[in-house]
Amino acid sequence: MQRLLDILASGVHDAKNQLFIAESMIAASEAAHGISMGEARYAIEAAANRLSRTLTAYHLLRDDATAAITPSIVSDLCDEVMLAQKKHLAARNITLSAECSVFDEWPLDRDLITDMLNNAVQNAGRYARQSVRLSATTDDGWLSLIVEDDGPGFATLPPDCGTGLMVAERLARLHTRRERHGSLTLTNDSALGGARFELRLP
């Protein structure tokens, strides 16, 4: 079974590399013909990043590894996600806003958490009517990173949301401190009226 998983992981890696080649070809065509295909390039880049996250998750889950937790400035993390996602949501007439009230450092695996938030914002943007909001708050020694939208909400809530959620929950739980573990919850309790993604880290 492990051998089969390794073969599948190798296939994912090859597919990711082919996407990067396709993106380079599109960029070359844009330059040669003076056309803009930014959304196509973004779609390819998003797919390649998703494959990269899948490989990262695979190695963490396979090797029972620990997260690379270091102090990170939460507001900078939120700014990074906003910079990566705002333009592309705007192209679909979706407004992305941020309410980050945490300006201090917090111990977390920045790459993993940034990937999870980017993915959450992208998913929210697919179903939002007009608005997506990213927020960060603290309460009783917990950091909450929240993505909300004004869409129709989740048609199916956990535990029936599939393997993607299972992997995300496992990655959240890799964040441990003082015998407390990170967690991930999905609800339809968004203040905007739609779905709510909440990642809590100790």
Characteristic terms for this protein:
Heat Shock Protein 90, 2 domains, globular, 202 residues, 51% helix, single chain, 5 helices, alpha+beta, 5-stranded mixed beta sheet
Structure report:
This protein has 5 helices and 9 strands; from the N terminus they run ααβαββαββαββββ. The protein is α+β, with helices and mostly antiparallel strands. It folds into 2 domains: 2-63; 70-201, Heat Shock Protein 90 (2-Layer Sandwich). The strands form 3 sheets. Strands 2-4-5-9-8 form a 5-stranded mixed beta sheet. A two-stranded antiparallel ribbon has the order 1-3. Helix 1 (2-33) runs antiparallel to helix 2. The longest helix has 32 residues, at 2-33. The two termini are 34 Å apart.
Number of DSSP-assigned strands? 9
| Largest sheet report | 5 strands, mixed
Shape: globular
Strand arrangement in the largest pleated sheet: 2-4-5-9-8
Task: Give the uncertain stretches in residue-range form.
Answer: none
* Beta-strand residue fraction: 15-25%
Binned, the helix content reads 40-55%
Mean pLDDT: 82
Q: Kindly report the name of the CATH homologous superfamily of the largest domain.
A: Histidine kinase-like ATPase, C-terminal domain
Q: First CA to last CA: what distance? A: 34 Å
